[in-house]
Design a protein that fits this description.
There is one protein chain. This protein has a single domain (7-205), classed as CDP-alcohol phosphotransferase transmembrane (TM) domain (Four Helix Bundle (Hemerythrin (Met), subunit A), Up-down Bundle). The longest helix has 39 residues, at 167-205. It has helices at 7-27, 36-62, 68-89, 107-129, 138-160, 167-205. It is mostly helical. Helix 3 runs antiparallel to helix 4 (107-129). It is built from six helices and no strands.
């Protein structure tokens, strides 16, 4: 087995395929003909996929198998998982008969989150090309934790609102999760830009 395709990176590849299955499942859902079990299953898939993220990172550090490929591939797959979920959240799958998006996610929020991920991915690639390690920071990990909590929680709340969860309580929970995700995403973006500033300055003066 090549060093690049070590066990942690293989787990990351498995998470990539789980991401595809998760997005396909979520795309089949329609809130106008709700099937709560689909959202329960999607939430379970997301949680399992997110758990593999923490597992591959732990094993890579424990076994001394942190690689440049892993530093690039791991966050890329994470972004596909989270961005795929949020993009679908603002799609027609989650619009009720009144035209209201039941996830409480707004299009501009998704554009901001996806834009942040694209920016950080670009900065990571640039830093790696300059020979500088650019792994996840504490702010990036906190952002991932928040997104990993918010996504399945929103799915479960949407699946059970009006039954085991009162409608008004459900709306408050979703709003708190959505706004907390946006705020933490913004903070992590600023931190990554500040981390890269000295590399960009060196490149400009070279």
């Amino acid at each position: 087995m090549s060093k690049a395709l070590n066990v942690p990176n293989q787990i990351t590849i498995v998470r990539f395929f789980l991401t595809i299955v998760f997005c396909i499942l979520l795309a089949q859902y329609s809130h106008r003909n709700p099937k709560p079990w689909m959202l329960d299953l999607a939430a379970g898939l997301f949680i399992f996929a997110a758990a593999t993220d923490f597992l591959d990172g732990h094993l890579a550090r424990k076994w001394g198998q942190v690689t440049a490929l892993g530093r690039i591939l791991d966050p890329l797959v994470d972004k596909l998982l989270v961005c795929g979920a949020f993009i679908l959240f603002v799609g027609p799958e989650f619009v009720d008969f009144d035209g209201h998006n039941v996830t409480e996610m707004k299009t501009w929020m998704v554009v901001f989150i996806v834009g942040r991920e694209m920016l950080v991915t670009s900065l990571r690639g640039f830093n790696e090309s300059m020979g500088k390690a650019f792994g996840a920071s504490i702010h990036g990990k906190l952002k991932m934790w928040m997104q990993s909590i918010a996504t399945p929680a929103i799915l479960l709340v949407v699946a059970h609102q009006g039954t085991s969860i009162p409608m008004e309580s459900a709306r408050v929970i979703k709003l708190v999760l959505v706004w907390a995700t946006v705020i933490i995403t913004a903070v992590s973006m600023i931190q990554y830009v500040l981390r890269s500033r000295y590399i960009l300055d060196e490149s400009a003066s070279a």
